[in-house]
Every structure is written in C-alpha cells, then in structure tokens.
Amino acid sequence: MQPRAVLEINKPATSSSNGSGKQDVAADIVAAEKYTVTGAPAGPSKLYQGVAWSVHNKLVDAFEATQAYWKEKDPKHVYYLSAEFLMGRTLTNAVHNMGLEGEYAEALKKLGSSLEEVRSQELDAALGNGGLGRLAACFLDSMATLDLPGWGYGIRYRYGMFRQAVKDGLQVELPDYWLDNGNPWEIRRPATQFKVGFYGSLQDGKWVPGEEVIAEAYDVPIPGYKTKTCSNLRLWDALPTTELDLQAFNAGDYVKAVEQKRKADEITAVLYPNDATEEGKELRLKQQFFFVSASLQDTIARYLEKHSDLSGLPEKACFQMNDTHPTIAVAELMRLLIDVHGLSYDDAWAITTKTVAYTNHTVMPEALEKWPVRVLAKLLPRHMQLIEEINDRWLASIKDHVAGKVEKELAAKAAAVAEAKAAAKAEAQAAAKAEGKELAEDEEEAAEEKKEEVDHVAEALKAYSIIQENQWNKGEMLVNMAYLAVVGSFAVNGVAAIHSEIIKTDIFPQFVELFPERFQNKTNGVTLRRWLAYCNPELSALITEALGTDAWVKDASLLEKLKPFAEDASFRARWRAIKQQKKAALAAHIKEVTGYEVSTEPLFDIQVKRIHEYKRQFMNAISLIYRYKTIKEATPEERAKMVPRVCVFGGKAASAYYMAKKIVGLVLSISETVNNDPDVGDLLKVVFLPNYNVSEAEIIIPGAELSQHISTAGTEASGTSNMKFALNGSFIIGTMDGANIEIGENTGFENLFIFGVKAEEINRLREERKDFKDYDPRWTAALDMVKAGAFGRPDYFDDLVASVNDMTRGNDWFLLANDFASYMDAQDEVDKLYRDQEEWTRRSIIYTASNGFFSSDRTIDQYAREIWSVQPTPLP
Ligand code: Z57
C-alpha cells in the first residue's frame, strides 16, 4: 500500500488579485505556496497546491459576487438534493471555465511547469458511485453556465468512493484519502450550522430527539463557462453538539465523554459504495436525513430573511430529489412547516407538493429503496407518524376512484362476483343462524354488497399504498420511498425516453392512472466542457477550426455543422490523426498502470462502467475468450485477415457484490493469459484498468474507437458514458436500451452496432429461459474453456459460469445466452467496417456531429422550463 503523503495546509493566503488592474498570477502562486502550503517539500504536489489556492481566491470573488446578486434579486432557486456528486478534479475545469487558461499557462511557464503537469497532482473528489453522481456534477456545471439560480446540496464525505487496486488477480478496496492535503475547492462556513435530531420519542405529539448533531456547511464554488455566474454546491459535515460530555469526563469515563464526537463523525465518514443496489443500513438513512434536514432548514432560513410568510415558498424554491435517496424530504418539509413554523397540515401539504420534484434513475427492484417501518419509527418517529398520515389521507382521497375501478372490473367478472356473493350470503346466514335468527332479505343483500366492497377495494388500495407488507418477509411493513416521492412531488421524471415509458407502465402505472400529467421525461446529458473541450483539446481545436468558432462549447447544436466535413478526405485524415494521438496517450497510460505494452494500430474497444450483472461485462469477456480461441486455431492466412483489437475494461465492483468481484477476477485472468501468450501477439490484448474514475475516464474516452453499452434491454435507465464516447467520435455497440436508442435516432441507426432482444420481449424470455437450450456453439466453447481452467482457478469461476449457464442455478436472469449470438454477429460487423478506415472515420465524425443533443445544457434547460420554473439570472 502506498504511504499517505500528507501536506500541512494552513489558511489560504490573501491574493494579489484583490483590487483592480493586471494581476500577477505567478506571484499569487508563489505566495500561496509559501504561506498556504507551508511545510510541504517543494515539488509538483506543492506547486499544484499553490496554483489551486490561487485559483481558489478567484473563485471566491466570483462566488461572492453571484451570491450577493442573487440574494438581492431574489429569483426562484432550484435545490438539487443528491446523496452523490462525482466531481472529479476541479483545477483545469475552473481555470478554463473562468477563462484564465492564458494567464495560468504563462505563469506556470515562468515557474518552469505547465497546467498539464500540475493538474495530475490533484486527487479526484469522488463523492459518488457512478452515473447518478456524475450526472449531478454535470448538472451543476450546466446550471451555472446557463446562469440559473440554484445550488446543489449533499454530504461532505471524508472518504469518497474507495480506491480500487488489483492484488493476486482480484479487486481490493483501499480508502480514499481525498482530504489529506486539504481541499482548496471548498469554503468552510462555521457560521452556517443547523441542528439535526434522531431517535427519541413523541411527547404530547411533539418530537423530542434522543440524539442531536450539528450540520456545518462547506461551500464548493461552481464556475459557469464564459459567464460571471459562480454557483454553489453546499456540502454538510456533522459535528457533535458538545465536543465532550463533561459529566462523563468528570466521572472518569473518557470513552463515553467522546462518544458524541464519534457518533457525529460516523454520519459523514464514508460514501456507501453501491451503485443501483440498496443497502438497508440505518446509518445510510441517517446520512440521508442528515443532509436533507440541514438543506431544508437552510433554505427556509434564507427564505425567511426576505419573506414573512411561508405560503410563498413554492414561488421561490424547488427541491429536485435525485433518486429516492433524499425522499425523506417530503416528510421533513412537512414537519418543519407544521411543527416548527406552525402551519396547518393542509397548508403544509399544499406547499410541499408544489415544491418537491423527483427523478427516478432505475427500475431495478434491488435499487428501489424500501425502509422498514420499524427502522424509520425508531430513527425518525415523528416522520414515520407523518408518513402514516400522508398515506391515510392519500388512500382516502383515491378511495372512490379505486372503488369505481373495482366495480368496473367486477362487472366484467360477473361470474366470480356471483360466487363471492353467494359465499358472503352463506356466511351471514350461518352467523345469523348461530345467533338463532333468520336473515331478512334486505340484510342479506347488504351483507353481499358490503363483502364485495370491503374486500375488493381494500385489496386494490394496497397497490397504491406507500406502506406495504414485505413480500419476502410477511408481517414486516415497509415504506416504499419511490411511492412517497411520487405522492409528494408535483413532477416525476425518468432519465431517457424508453426509461420514462417503462416507469409509467411497470413501476408507477397506478399513479399514472390518477395523475398522468405529473410524469415527464428528461433525457440525460453530459457537460461538453469536461467531456469534450477539456479532455480532448486536440479534437476540440479541429472542431473549432472547422466551424470557425468555439461557440459549440456552449451551444452544442452547432456541432451539426460538422457533417459536411465528414465528406472531406483531408479533414478525415486530420480527424484520424487526432484519434491516433489520443490512442497513443491511452496506450502510454495502460503501460504506466498495468505494465502491458499495447500497439496503437489495433481497434481500441472499451467497456468502462460500474461492474454489474445487468451491464453484462461477463458477456464481453466470454466473447473475448472466443476471439482468443479463434486466434489460437487460425492459420497464418486467416490471422492475416483478422482485425487486431485492444480490449479495455474498467470499473469498480461494490465491495460486497459477490458476482461482480468474480467478473473482475475473470477479466484479469483472461488478460494475464492472453497478453502473455506469444501466439497472440498484437491480434488481441485484454486490459483491466484499475480504479476507473472521472480522471481515468478523461484519458480513456478520447482514445476509444468502439465503446460497449450492452445492458439487457430495459435495465439501464439511460447511461451517460455512451454520450461521452459518441461525442468523442467513438462508435457504439449496444442494445436497444436507455439512451442508446436516442443516440441511434440522432446518429442514424446504420452507424451503431445494435444487437439483442428488445425490452418488450424480456418478460417472455425470462419465462422461457427455464427450458433454454439454444446455446450458440461459440458460447459453449468459451465457457468450457473457463470450466476447464484455461484461465486458472476453475473453482473460483464456478458460480459465475453457473449464473448464466446452469438453469437450475443462476437462471441467466440478464439473458446473456439469448443475446450472445447476435452480439457476436454485431462484433463481426465492427471488424468488417474497421477494415475500411475512410468509411470508419467518416462515420466517427458523424457521431460527434450528431450528438449535441446530449449536452447537459439542453437537459438542464428542459428541467428549468418544464419542471423548476427557474429563470436565467446573469450578473449585469
Ligand atoms: C446510479 O448510478 C444510477 C441509478 C441508480 O438508481 C443509482 Br442508486 C445509481 C444510474 C443509472 O444506472 C444509469 O443508467 C443512469 O444513466 C444514471 O443513473 C444517471 O441517470
């Protein structure tokens, strides 16, 4: 394990940029190095710190100007509530967004360095798992760029996403010490503190918490691109209400005396490392409530500085809940309005349901949060009581509708009704007889009617209930957080067109039936600043030259104008040369971190994303085993015709995800076998790049020629790396899933390698798979190699192989066997097209030209207009 390199960081030095006139950036950097980064030995790390602290000061200036202006103007704000913000590095992004690259390039040259050299010293801020967290970060960039008043709100985890390393051919997890050298990108706000309570009981209807912590704010300035606007990401840290319990201290119990401090520390200690799977831990719920409560209290406090009456809150604030993680906001806003600010239930509900909106990011059942009533009632007794009341009122409000629906259904099932009636009548008669009397005719009828009403309506109402019985553990009641979010929100959206349809038909149909207008789609997007302009400056320069302007960085629709250049052979040659350059950079990186030397001639084929069975990295791996086998068996003539490939995998497996860890193990084993097999040479290299994160992605994506987005149809809500790859001129091989579909519509499906079954077929195929025998011979051959130990450790891979190949065990839930043949055929098409480099390049240009739609500026503009009603408010 690498030792922790700790620098001593003091308070930031004052900037020489204060005041007007020409600034001496080099002097700023030197002063920051001397007075802020004291103690550290001179070198690139210290220089980075100096540069960062000098940029920090400029950010603070911009931040204060923007926030003061917004405070004065008092426009409506959006508050993006998210348990995750996957920010990555800040230096280059901040320098470029603020238009300081010229000054800093010059200053660093004077100091014998460069921005490229110092930027690599920065540690990623990895306060997120994957897509959902990175989306939040892209959204902040776009909100600031579009001058939209709004903040992000989240948690200042002291340990972000774990660092992934490889040991003995397997993934190991190491802590992420991202704050060790201080954090130049945040401003601590000791004056902004709120109390957050947990546990305790209700006394005379009032909540008396059993435990309290203080939430303290840290602000992370978010500079927009080519605008003065500098927005805010406010992250909360937890402090004990009293550092030491003096009574316990005096009584000699030192450990108990610091108990409070330990409990507070625990709340913000670490990000849960699960992407799209839920871990029902009480501490996780504590984290969620902690940041939600602090954020709502903070917003209300600022609102009340300007307004006396909370009834106007919906005109000034909108809370966008990023997945169900912040959904306790519905109950907490109700509690604050009723218990703290004295509003009636009805008034509070009217405000809440005009202020809160919800984004769903998954349909995977294991990711949909359901908290046991027992856990909620213990940690948040008042909130559980409010959720019960919300649910009771909700069910009462729809009872007539449901009864009507039931009546209709029953009418259609007349025979069944008659039977039920007869049974009810018999029952009533028996009861009457037991009491020694006959049933009057009208009494008989009433009994029949009542039985019918009560049973069927109550049964039907269960589907609408926020509180439901656990189907796997009868008797345990659960709060369905997605249902709470839907009932409490004025807008609910999915993240790609297909996903927004699936949530309507499969996840929330009973709610759609009641308020169809609440459901929307907002197809995801990515910021073109980080994901094209800054990570691929060479390609960006060529685009700017061709279009005669760099306006495309802010207006992505202009990329369309690149299309004619695809027909120009000399432009194609330059495009291809840049792709080669980015491939060479990636090859150098592969050599540096894995030791493998790869040629830059082969097709660079990449799959980077969290490891999950539904994303089917295993299917990719099986296909590579077959490719390896084919190479081994080929004649020299056949080998000469093959298209060589460098196949790269990257991604973290959640630390407790058994199958995902085995998939990483298999890829590493294949890599070891294939790359060291002298028969193979440059025809195939398989690389697992450890610790895939934002900064790795910035190197990998520009070097890709083919990227894989091969989830089982209907499982990947959107995907966002597919957009980044497409914008960098990489082809997509993928399924009709998530945003792949819209990328296909924009790029032209003839330019994608689409394979596999469609979402509509999945349910049927899952039924049929019990008898699945139609294995492709390539599939069988490849899996037989794994079983025979061609990649070592056959026992270790047993369960993995069984999960897709043994219908008595894993059942191949994600239908790898079904899609394998068409996947292999699509891969053959890839090889065929790659042999025609002119055509390949032509289409690569078409990819970049066609996908401006996937700029997060477009996404955020839609959120602002169609959900938030927030107006651009640029500084004059
Ligand atoms: C996460 O990264 C996503 C969904 C979740 O429910 C959780 Br928890 C984490 C991802 C989806 O899997 C992607 O398909 C999607 O592109 C991304 O969220 C952003 O919407």
Q: Would you kindly provide a written description of the structure presented here, covering whatever features stand out?
A:
50% of the residues lie in helices and 14% in strands. The chain is an alpha/beta fold and 876 residues long. It folds into 2 domains: 76-85 and 129-166 and 178-398 and 468-527 and 856-876, Glycogen Phosphorylase B (Rossmann fold, 3-Layer(aba) Sandwich); 548-854, Rossmann fold, CATH 3.40.50.2000. Strand 10 (211-223) and strand 11 (230-240) form a beta hairpin. Helix 12 crosses helix 15 (381-412) and helix 15 packs across helix 17. The protein is globular, with a radius of gyration of 30 Å. 47% of the residues are buried. The chain binds (1S)-1,5-anhydro-1-(4-bromo-2,5-dihydroxyphenyl)-D-glucitol (Z57). Residues 129-132, 135, 275-276, 323, 361-362, 367, 495, 524, 716-720, 738 line the site of (1S)-1,5-anhydro-1-(4-bromo-2,5-dihydroxyphenyl)-D-glucitol.
